[in-house]
Amino acid sequence: MKNILNAPFVEEMKKITANMYRLGWDERNGGNISYMLEESDVAEYLDLTNVIRTIPIGFDAAELSGKIFIVTGTGRYFKNIEFDPANNLGIIRIAKDGTTAELLWGYEDGGRFTSELPAHLMSHITRLRKDPEHRVVMHTHPTNTLAMTHIHELDDKKFTHTIWEMCTECIVVFPDGIGVLPWMVCGNNEIGVATAKKMEDYHIVVWGLHGIYGAGKNMDEAFGLIETVEKAAELYMLIAGHPHVNTIRDFELKAVADAFGLDYRKDFLDL
Question: pTM (2 decimals)?
Fold first, then answer.
């Protein structure tokens, strides 16, 4: 059996979390990632009949029964994952009962998965219904996006429209727009349900005064969505309070979308 520490999915988690910490998006123990893995890939590195222990999920995820995820740990710092993945990451399988996770590897010091795992699983369920190739849910606290939620209306259409106006690529990268939630208590099922509801229409959900959720087919896609929103939010914060001499007008956004053949939120433009 191959060494799990050399597995591509472990390497991906190490690299992406180190990068997110370096960017200043995941201070202290902020942020979490869950990445659904193929059973055949995991079987090259682990004995899937060996369940180390079981951990209650706090949510009925029966729709994901048998699915395997690599998940960041609760209370863990992204900066430490690169150097100590076995304590800061875990590989879990959703048990048949749907309410329990079977630990297959990791959390070696007795830890457990992020407290926001139920919210992740709810979003995984929603996105898999929309796209069977979906694999990743990523939560982080990008600085400018968070700052923008302090001064901008928390409305799907208005927030999306402002972000789309910031730079040409935005409507290309997320033509389905951005879902936005008001501030809510984190780490509970209520915010998970609200996020999953937004995920029916969006790949990106902004949590007001908190952070962002991104969903994708792989790590690059989920991260790319978030970094594009964050770049646009940075531009917005740089020009906030200044007169807008130039902007991308709605008919020009439509022209970009038409040029790329995008299925975009036409109702988010005033034409």
Answer: 0.95
